[in-house]
Design a protein that fits this description.
The protein is of the alpha/beta class. The protein has helices spanning 16-25, 47-63, 74-87, 100-106, 118-122, 124-133, 147-152, 159-174, 191-198, 209-222, 243-259, and strands at residues 6-10, 31-35, 68-71, 93-94, 111-116, 138-143, 179-182, 204-206, 235-239.
Length: 260
């Protein structure tokens, strides 16, 4: 048993979609959420810079006393997860894997779309995942251009957001995809818009966040790191940006819980 907190890290607000699922599944666990904020978005940054930023974030969470870290950022996972697991072994570090496997398994049309950042789609992790699970399936990768900025600026429910989403997924829909994988943790905040845009088309939108929470639970048991069942959890929010941004993280987390 271990009552130390779990650290959850993202470039900004997006990883709160994972934070929400971990909190829901593991109500006795304390959580520290680090939203970089200062350097968001990561999607077009050089790989070397993303590795440096991810290293700084994990080091900060370890300094805060975390027993495990969840890299709740697809871009940081794609660029840095192997480096982080080597440097910080034996501490368990959970990353984001594109939910290509369930999408390929469940597709009826034989076509799936993957929405992600540039760096995620260029990464070896994405290519390996498609090669492993995508045999006989057409995978249509599309950059969710402007998606992160919409979420960071709390503009998800605007006409501009709807126009950006429609433009981004037009190619995916035109090719007959019946599964759309959300390959960035910011993107589930746009789920209501996505669902409106694909309404009536028989399209399933795949959010990997619940699967990540289940993986966290599995590793807590495996490493004997679970909090005691009656532990009273605490929830903290930290950032490399300013106090205004830290408060924004806290407010978004509160909204996350009220929506779930």
């Amino acid at each position: 048993m271990n009552n130390a907190p779990i650290g959850i890290y993202d470039s900004g607000l997006g990883g709160l979609t994972v934070w929400r699922e971990v909190k829901k599944l593991l109500p006795s666990e304390s959580l520290i959420y680090l939203g970089d904020g200062k350097n968001c978005p990561y999607g077009t940054r050089p790989v070397e810079e993303i590795v440096m930023l991810a290293d700084a974030a994990v080091a900060r969470l370890i300094a805060e006393g975390c027993k495990m870290v969840v890299v709740a950022c697809n871009t940081a996972t794609a660029a840095a997860i192997d480096f982080l697991r080597t440097k910080y072994a034996p501490m368990p570090i959970v990353g984001m894997e594109p939910a290509v496997k369930p999408a390929c398994r469940d597709t009826r049309s034989g076509v799936i779309g993957v929405l992600a950042t540039e760096r995620s789609l260029e990464g070896d992790l994405f290519r390996r995942t498609v090669a492993k699970y995508g045999e006989g399936v057409e995978v249509v990768p599309v950059v969710g251009k402007g998606f992160v900025e919409l979420v960071e600026q709390n503009r998800e429910e605007t006409s501009e957001a709807e126009a950006i989403v429609k433009s981004a997924i037009a190619e995916i829909l035109s090719k007959g995809a019946d599964q759309i994988v959300l390959g960035c943790t910011h993107y589930p905040f746009l789920l209501p818009v996505l669902e409106r845009v694909v309404s009536g088309r028989g399209v399933t939108i795949v959010d990997p966040s619940p699967a990540v929470a289940r993986r966290v639970a599995q590793l807590l048991n495996e490493y004997n790191l679970c909090a005691i069942p009656d532990h009273r959890p605490s929830y903290r929010f930290v950032t490399f940006a300013d106090e205004t941004y830290r408060q924004q993280l806290e407010n978004k987390a509160t909204a996350c819980c009220s929506e779930s």
